[in-house]
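[#protein-structures] MJ: dropping DUF4402 domain-containing protein here for a structure pass
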Amino acid sequence: MALEVRTSLDFDRVVLTGPAGGKARLQPDGSRQTEGAITSLTGRAMTGEVVIRGEPGRQVRVELPQRIELYGYAGGALAVTHVTSDLPILPRLDSEGLLRIRFGGELFISGDAEGEYRGDVPITVDYL
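AK: finished. structure tokens for DUF4402 domain-containing protein:
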């Protein structure tokens, strides 16, 4: 079994317009929402997408994290919470041995969070 990252979850540029903070959400279908003192997400924001390859027709167990820690080059930290995906209830590889999963989440920003942030998304996949 193999897991290939097609696109990384990327909120691109989020602009905080006031001290109260706010949330930016990216849904697995690519829809974007903001709440609070955040302007809308840019068109370059992208959901994460992975492809699982394995034995055709096999049912699999896929574990995505509920929280993704992000760390800035200047030492700051943020987190993507409420990670959601378009994973079916009973995931199964198709007749070609593929399963595509898209995922998004919610990013809360407050205070002085300027900078670039990066983090890892641990994904576990097993045959059932």
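MJ: nice. The chain has one domain: 2-122.
AK: one more thing. Residues 2-122 form one domain.
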